[in-house]
Write a structure and sequence with these properties.
Blueprint lengths: L4 H25 L13 H26 L3 H27 L3 H22 L1 H8 L4
Helix pairs in contact: 1-2, 2-3, 3-4
């Protein structure tokens, strides 16, 4: 059977997020290595953030490939990843509302909504059935 269009869209989104996380690791965290002021995190914190971003990039990229191949592990892994995104975005939205940064809050609420849609879509019985079909 043909891969559902929503699965392809989520795979493409996974590749976009992988690229953005990798770019974020290089562009936003990289310049901090040479800085030495009170607002710059320590070297260790910067290294941890870079590893987290590169790890998130690899996770998103692997999920994208697995989704395109209709691998069930990728469906489950993507659901787990978006649950993490939902939790972090929800907390970010709450912080933004409390600090009256409403544009940021709207972006975070949008991320929550997208994460809920992805998790819901990948959990539908008709979509799950596509991942259970034998390939070959």
């Amino acid at each position: 059977m043909k891969r559902p269009g929503g699965v392809t869209a989520i795979a493409v989104l996974s590749f976009v997020m992988a690229a953005l996380n990798l770019a974020g690791a290089v562009l936003s965290e990289g310049p901090r290595f040479g800085a030495n002021d009170e607002t710059t995190p320590s070297f260790a914190v910067t290294v941890v953030w870079i590893f987290l971003r590169v790890g998130a990039s690899a996770w998103n990229g692997a999920n994208g490939v697995g989704l395109l191949r209709l691998e069930n592990w990728a469906r489950r892994s993507t659901i787990a990843l978006v649950i993490c995104v939902i939790a972090v975005a929800f907390l970010g939205a709450l912080r933004a509302v409390l600090s009256q940064e409403f544009v940021f809050a709207i972006v975070e609420v949008g991320m929550v909504a997208m994460g809920v849609w992805i998790a819901t879509f990948l959990s539908q019985p008709r979509v799950k059935a596509q991942f259970a079909l034998p390939r070959g």
